[in-house]
Amino acid sequence: MAEIGLHGVTRSFGGQPAVDGLTISIADGEFFVLLGPTGAGKTTTLRLIAGLERPDAGHVSIGGEDTAGWSVAQRDVALVFQYYSLYPRYTVRQNLAFPLKSRVRTFTADEIEQRVARAAKMLRIEHLLDRKTDRLSGGEMQRVSIGRAIVRDPSVFLMDEPLSNLDAKLRESLRSELKNLQASLGATFLFVTHDQIEAMSMGDRIGVLNQGRLVQVGTPNDIYNAPVDTFVATFIGSPAMNLLPGVVENGKLRLPGAWEVPLEPAGQARLARDAGPVTVGIRSEDIGVGGSGATQARVHHVENHGVELIVTLSAGDALFKATAPAATRLTIDETVPFTLNQKRLHGFDATTGRNLASAA
Amino acid sequence: MAEIGLRGVEKYFGANYVIRQLDLEIANGEFVVLLGPSGCGKTTTLRAIAGLEEIDRGDITIDGRPVQSLPPGERDIAFVFQLFALYPHLTAFENIAFPLRATGESRAEIARKVRDVAASLRIEPLLDKRPSALSGGDLQRVAIGRALVRRPKALLMDEPIGALDAKLREDMRAELKRLHIENGTTSVYVTHDQVEAMSLADRVAVMNDGVLQQVGTPSEVYLHPANLFVAQFVGSPVMNILPAEVKSEGGGTGVSFGGAQSFGFPGELGARLDAALPVGHELMVGVRPEAVLVAREAGEGLRPVEARFIEPLGAYDIVDLKVGDRFLKARTASGFVGAPGTAVWARLDAPLVHFFDATTGQVLDIGLFHG
User: Fold this and answer.
1) Nearest CB neighbour to A303, from listed B199, B223, B309
2) In this predicted complex, what is the ipTM?
3) What is the pTM of this model?
4) Is B20 helix (H, G, I), strand (E, B) or coil?
């Protein structure tokens, strides 16, 4: 069993905490994604689990046991990095076999061959086995790196942005492959990324990190639909969630100098505030352009994303984005009606940025 | 204001072409984006227009005048790079004013021009700051201000927002486009990011291996890709491309993938494909995820498939459907397919399906749906 636990883990560099009182538990066989911007502490967390860093406070457990006295090798984890460190003058087969030829591990030649064959089959690189690794494409090299992690049959895989250097098309296909691989191995995966689409598409659960602290943990849908604060709200989803400085007054939601709408009961409940200032969060797909809306805005910018349009609307000083069907005809600077789906409003504390509904 | 023409432009290193037989006419006031993967020749093309790179063959004209013999400084073109390249010891104001130093204009006139361009970029409050005190987005705004202050005939930009974070890139896209609409400066913009290209361009010029693949409006390249490369480079998630078999079934045409049960198409399709596809060439079918229509129950024209992998992207889901030994990605409403392993039904939205000659990579003009 390979559940992973971090219990109040802190690790500082030069007095600056990179990871600050982090507590996470990752279940055996789970695909867990750590998501956050550069400098959030993602890689440090991963290195703490791998044993490449030691916590200043707190402890890391694997399979329920404290790892404090364990060496890197004893942890039975495999690491895959963004930069594939393969031996260039070796063939793919030799690279895959390498981790099995260590002096502390004793595998027979037959066993090594079987394990290499199995990993190559899983990753569909069997046809490359006799090729030198400097003759491979980026995607093939990353598959070999993952293969080298698989052959040892570890119970935990730690992956640090393994897809970041690949082109968009390859990243998409490797997302499905990695998820399938994890399911068929049944191993625990901890995957680190700054890319919210990778996190959403692969994670059973996502842990969002910011400035060394865990901000929210949940399924992709939890995090998308119920962000705990404005950081999570704008970090997840593309385009980023609109955040607008609103005021609730006499049953109306007002954006001073821009527009006001009567609040429906659903909207009232979502904002969780009867009166006063509130940071209103609403995603582009929950703003409808056109139709019979009484509230109006100007078309500031239209982006054609092929499958749909992302329309930036302006009203007063406020700019906000809406999604419209690809066939919608819009002219820059024309005035259009728009509607808000009040069932999907988010209310955030105007000062702290906390989600008012989840805080209540 | 300027028209830019590239005619038969070629550049090579030894036997290796960097640009091959490139013909492209850019109209006055147009925003053209050169889009392609790294190494496709897009930056070399841009640098050739600027005069930073020599070409081996062909003509480059600005307003009808050949410019190959002109040094960069005489082409009246401004260039914005991915790395901001501002003078660190000068303020934002001084950086923007820098290109005007040699023009002999009065201080008041220079100040007015700097303030005008700063106003359109909304960086007036930053004019007294030095680059070290500015954020990435503001640095690039200053760099663009410096490029625009001379009122150049054309603005060339090489991945100007590629180094910024995702959210800032979204905002900067809107700003750049607004700026273009206000200024009307002929703009040529290089990127490898198809979202950027789609959202900024009047026309997109897609390049690969030094060869121009297709030029068209964002809608044209998205809806009517000329070949397999464009089909897969534009759009996210990537268009599904699968080898297909075609046979007539009843009154219709059946298109199947990997030996699985076929999807139904109009009867004329078979004959049109026979006419368009040379004997011995393989057929590839391309269909974007939004044109794979998924239903929870059986119905007319629907065939059963298994949902394998679900990517919940918040606003919608991308579902991998197992079809024979292949997968088709479908775009569905969020949560539409409950769990992996669910049996669902699917059909293809015929007018949005593309047919390609797998041997040449070119789209087959079957003239059935697009008129």
Assistant:
1) B199
2) 0.85
3) 0.88
4) strand
